[in-house]
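Handout, page 2. Input:
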Amino acid sequence: MVARAWICILATIAGPVFCTSAVAQDSPTSLAGQVQLLARDFMSGRPDGATVVIPAMSVAIGRDGTLLYAGGFGEARPHLPATERSIYMIGSITKQFTAAAILRLMEKGAVAKRSGARLSPSMPVADILEVADKWAIEKSPPITVGNLLSMTSNLPNFTRRPPPALDPWGAVPAHKLLGQMGTYKPSGFPGSFEYSNTSYFLLSEIIEAVRLGQTSRTYHETLEDEIFRRLGLTDTGFESEPWIRKRLVSAHYQRLPRFDKPDWLQGSADVASSVMDLFKWDKALMEGRALTGPARDLMLSDSARVEVWTYYGMGWFIIHKGGIDRYFHSGTVSGYTSFNLIVRPTTDHWVSVSLLTNSDGVEGINDFANSLAELVLDENAK
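Output:
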């Protein structure tokens, strides 16, 4: 067994200390050595100091489901180094878990309490949630569950245009937020892509408005049962849980926090996790254990066109370019920025990169994730 040690690099005289849990005496040409160099450069930023300060970051890289690198940089809390098991808020990567829970309920035959109809992508939201009755546009097709999953409902994004009756800096019960959704009108007929946290909040409410047999569960219970516990994601939960709050990496704010109180981000950005658990999630998804093959393919399908090369599936952005498929999602909430990436150069091989940081407003995290993936892809090409 190779001994592991904490390696701390003093970037500058006045700069931050970078600590990583890594194999001792890593060669600069080894994967670990290259990751450490790239991470140091990414966290330290430009000499002019224009970049956002990143006190802590954790990284996990896998190939075909085998973990190649996992470690942490900086301090999760004062005098506590970040590791691969450090827990951060993951922001909009939450949407992957919400979408997976909905697809699991579809596979298991969940039915709407309101209508008794079986849950499916083509089901009108009005068959499940009463508030959807208020969204009708003359001659428009109904907004469906599939429209919510693929961000094609054209409902306004409430984190861009909060309901006037609710305080973005305060706590708001989910039932009050749901009630305010009745004041919204779609910007047009459903079908075109428009990124909206509203859609995934509504999906979390749909989870609570369906039943399996005679059993119904809360949004939290469903994600814990169908995703977290089933897949062994032992570092994953919700900020409202005491054990999560105890282990959560300290947040670093670049702007005044808002939408950081319950239940503003329910379903869209309220999950906390570690890079080790995101690696496990990516592995389970690609191996057909998180969802069945057909449900997984639906999640990763080109459901909505975003721009020339980019699509949105269900909780994932997708790019097909140069013969390589990339599936990814970023996440930004007050105090945290995250990124989860799967690169598939062939149908039989894939690389995963998961990044979590404890600062909001971190720019270039997508490029950094892709540069880490390229280290493994380049190695495969040799």
